[in-house]
Amino acid sequence: MAAEDREPAAEAARWKKERFEVFRAKRGERKERFATSSEIPIEPVYVGDARSVEGLPGEAPFTRGIYPTMYRGRLWTMRQYAGFASASETNRRFRYLLDAGQTGLSVAFDLPTQIGYDSDHPLAEAEMGKVGVPINSLRDMEVLLASIPLDRVSTSMTINSTAPMLLAMYVALAKRQGVPSGKIRGTVQNDLLKEYVARGTYRFPVAPSMRLVTDIVEHCSRELPGWNPISISGYHMREAGCTAVQEVAFTLAHGLAYVQAAVERGLDVDDFGAQLSFFFNAHNDFFEEIAKFRAARRCGRG
User: Fold this and answer.
1) Domain ranges of the chain
2) pLDDT at residue 302, rounded to an integer
3) Strand 154-158 to 276-279 pairing
4) Within 13 Å and on the Cβ side, how many CA atoms surround 140?
5) pTM for this prediction
6) In whole angstroms, how large is the CA radius of gyration of the chain?
7) How many beta carbons lie within 10 A of that of residue 274, not counting itself?
8) What is the dihedral of CA 206, 209, 214, 219, to 10 degrees?
């Protein structure tokens, strides 16, 4: 049925019965009752004209989210981006954050680590440990994640040019902990195209960089089912000055390029597509950002 032929109230009632109530019975919600600070009840969905029922939560094209309950059911994973000085000091910070209730780790690496310089390189001297943690070896990774069970926490690593090396260290450490590769969860940013556009921490030319990106996608699809091999990032381009429309456009264009490279490698998109993640900016214009995220979902659905 075309969107203009739908009666919004009837569609919302159908959705609530067929999607929302069924999903809530299985997964539950975070609270028994949702209300504003003025004690006005918050409904699970609101509709306006006929087009507002196209892509209700949990229904294709997922304009309003992929789950019927969305954040009423489960909040997003919260991580404080952390890393500084040394592996041991950052480890103390990580354990403090986990003890305080943080639900995942987000690792900030220093600039020498991001572009492939050891900490004792002359060019690294002025930047070592300043905007993130220096990691030069598997031993450093062991210190960084000491006393943190890698089968119980998910880890996001903001690393691009040297992502293959840092991910290999993480997997090796998990094995030393006795954690099978299939049990580790997390994300490696590994978005080299946005480095050329906006951020600048590239080390290799474009073609070799794309090959390395695809190597990680291929490896994760076969060996690391709980790991996102790319975080396709609009955030950095928005911070560099692009508009909301450009942020979505460039991000999805980069995503298409990564998918095409993997398909040309011989991978089946159904084997890796679900592991691709996205990282958008949550900017200041509240309503524009809502529209942006909804548009990104619709466009991503294709």
Assistant:
1) 1-75, 78-188, 192-302
2) 67
3) unpaired
4) 19
5) 0.86
6) 21
7) 11
8) 180
